[in-house]
Design goal:
The complex is a heterodimer. Chain A is an alpha/beta fold. Chain A is about 30% helix and about 20% strand. Chain A folds into 2 domains: about 1-65 and about 85-180, no CATH class; about 205-240 and about 265-345, no CATH class. In chain B, the strands form 3 sheets. Chain B has a 7-stranded mixed beta sheet, with helices on both faces. Classes of the chains: A alpha/beta, B alpha/beta.
Chain lengths: ~350, ~260
């Protein structure tokens, strides 16, 4: 079922949805960007149709709704850890195909890995439905087509925004009542078929090639360029790593909470155990670890896709202008060189 | 839904000072633990850390802990009767059933003895479970020696070589554990053996190489790893190496896997 709504009708639809759902979408935060007079676009609850930023890709991914930068997982007193309570109200997230596909990646880690299901992820995921925002093609950092994440059928609503309003396709009967007698008009979402940027993920199946790649001099470049700030992993649609941190409340040091706080394999100390040295002590080591996780290790474990959805946010956010697509292409060149070397032996 | 990271309060039954910085905490719990598995120890306000189970009995587990970090320093302030929060057990332990009926060689460095202690106690108690146990235990110095009582008792049951890295001690040898690998009667095992190596990463690396030099079959070597962890259930990412999660796939690994892991 399809509908074409003008801005007023779209506002009314949003108001109706908000009665039953907490609606999250990319939203502009004025003057909160990294530089003077720049904005940040990130996921937040939206109240009005005009709050929804559809014209441009959000700086931060939709994962922040499901796995917030920090969340309380337990409240403790001296003799008890009491589980925090999650939201009760269903959630509707407006997201582009890359962000929806990214949730399939996160789910493999949070809900499946090792046979343990993470309660905090699962209780959020069970509440979430997606409204897929038709993507107009992203920007010059996007390469979703290369990663096969340009399409999805995991959505209850599909939406194509314009200055005049929004076209909607309803694929989940639960949403039909919100449309009532709004004007029907067929709409089938289109997906991005080509990005300006194309990335070829190198074949890293060969163990000897991987071994040689890990010690390849290409990674040394990042010792000079990468500042290990972790901005790339915070902006990443799929990165899941976190650290557990206990916090006490100032007015009563006996009570407090255990928090899950976003962490990053790119920052110093990520792998450091108490009283021991770091395993990955350089930016080169950390970059190699991240890139191989995204383009080999995750897939080697879970089998179905790579851990990168090609959203380009890491490239966009890197203060040192390190491009993930350029990095993967460098890996490809290094792999070709390694394979040629091995063939000669 | 079951919460796999929910800590449970447990009572500390006893604190035994093995050395100045390594104490063994016996904690009341009915958790059933395989030899070589670990638990997450938790202190409200401070945090959590993974600690291997160093002994187990009816209704209790022991953890041998070095005070080197935020959590372990606070655990050292606790005494019998105090509460310690536990969750677990996690990970894959020693393939004890595969070791049964074989000659077992155990090589440890420092507190690397802790994760094999409960298995050694099992084989000491259960005579005939393995054909023989050859134990090489090295410590940095006299102050670093742990499990004094057991080291003495194992002398009766096992073939033992105890060593300090640089110092002399009566009845003990001086040198790194790698120096004594050649003294194991490998030829007498008829290929029917398993080797367990636990210690700091460089010790495990060089012991592995020394074992290969002595003609030991790489398929028969096992190692136990330690890595930073927040969750211990494959979510937080801290312990991941390549496509391997130490918390899920380890901490015990066959050497053929351990050898190829690049942090």
């Amino acid at each position: 079922m399809g509908y074409t709504l003008n801005r007023q009708q779209a506002d009314a639809l949003l108001a109706a949805l908000r009665k039953d759902y907490t609606v999250y979408a990319p939203k502009r935060f004025r003057n909160q960007g990294r530089y003077s007079d720049t904005d940040i676009i990130r996921y937040a609850e939206v109240e009005r149709f005009e709050d929804i930023v559809w014209q441009t890709k959000s700086d931060y991914p939709a994962k922040e709704v499901l796995t917030p930068i920090q969340q309380a997982i337990f409240y403790f007193t001296e003799d008890e850890y009491r589980e925090s309570k999650g939201p009760r109200k269903p959630i509707l997230i407006l997201a582009r195909p890359c962000d929806i596909n990214a949730q399939h990646v996160q789910a493999r880690i949070y809900a499946g890995n090792g046979g343990y299901t993470d309660l905090y992820y699962e209780r959020m995921r069970e509440l979430v439905k997606f409204a897929m925002m038709e993507c107009g093609g992203g920007d010059d950092t996007c390469f979703c087509v290369s990663m096969g994440t340009n399409k999805t059928d995991d959505y209850s609503l599909a939406m194509k925004f314009s200055d005049d309003g929004v076209q909607v396709q309803v694929t989940d009967g639960a949403f039909a009542p919100y449309f009532g007698d709004l004007p029907q008009a067929d709409y089938t979402p289109a997906f991005v078929e080509e990005n300006e940027l194309k990335v070829t993920v190198p074949d890293l199946d060969d163990k000897e090639v991987r071994k040689a790649l890990k010690s390849h001099p290409m990674w040394q470049e990042f010792n000079a360029r990468c500042i290990s700030c972790g901005a790339c992993t915070v902006a990443c649609s799929t990165c899941t790593c976190f650290t557990t941190r206990d916090v006490i409340y100032g007015d009563n040091p006996e009570v407090g909470e255990r928090r899950r706080v976003t962490s990053s394999c790119q920052i110093a100390g990520f792998d450091q155990m108490a009283g021991q040295r770091e395993f990955r002590s350089t930016a080169a080591d950390r970059m190699r670890y991240k890139v191989l996780h995204k383009f080999h290790d995750y897939k080697a474990r879970f089998g179905d896709s790579h851990m990168c959805v090609g959203c380009g946010r890491c490239t966009h956010r890197c203060p040192e202008l390190i491009s993930i697509s350029a990095t993967v292409n460098k890996v490809s060149a290094a792999v070709d060189e390694i394979k040629a070397g091995l063939a000669k032996q | 839904m079951m919460n796999p990271v929910q800590p449970k309060p447990c009572t500390i039954l006893d604190v035994h000072k093995e050395s100045a910085h390594e104490w063994t905490f016996r904690v009341e719990t009915d958790a059933k633990v395989a030899h070589g598995q670990f638990m997450q120890l938790s202190v409200p306000k401070i945090g959590e850390c993974p600690i291997s189970v160093s002994a187990q009995g009816d209704g209790w587990l022991e953890f041998t802990i070095r005070s080197v970090g935020k959590v372990t320093n606070v655990i050292f302030e606790k005494t019998a009767g105090d509460t310690l929060f536990l969750r677990g057990p996690y990970g894959k332990g020693w393939p004890v059933d595969q070791f049964r009926g074989k000659h077992l060689v155990v090589i440890t460095g420092g507190t690397g003895l802790a994760p094999v202690r409960s298995m050694l106690n099992l084989f000491a108690a259960e005579s005939g479970a393995v054909k023989s146990v050859h134990l090489i235990s090295g410590f940095k110095n006299e102050e670093g020696v742990v499990f004094h009582k057991e080291l003495e008792a194992w002398k009766e049951k096992f073939s033992t070589i105890y060593a300090l890295d640089n110092d002399a001690k009566e009845g003990w040898r001086t040198g790194m554990v790698t120096a004594f690998v050649k003294e194991i009667p490998w030829d007498s095992f008829g290929g029917d053996y398993a080797v367990v190596v636990v210690g700091p990463p460089p010790m495990m690396k060089f012991t592995g190489l020394e074992l290969l030099k002595n003609g030991v079959d790489e398929e028969k070597i096992w190692m136990s790893f330690e890595r930073k962890m927040s969750c211990a259930v494959g979510k937080c990412g801290h312990c991941r190496i390549d496509e391997t999660y130490v918390c899920l796939d380890g901490p015990v690994f066959p050497y053929t896997v351990a050898r190829d892991l690049v942090d």
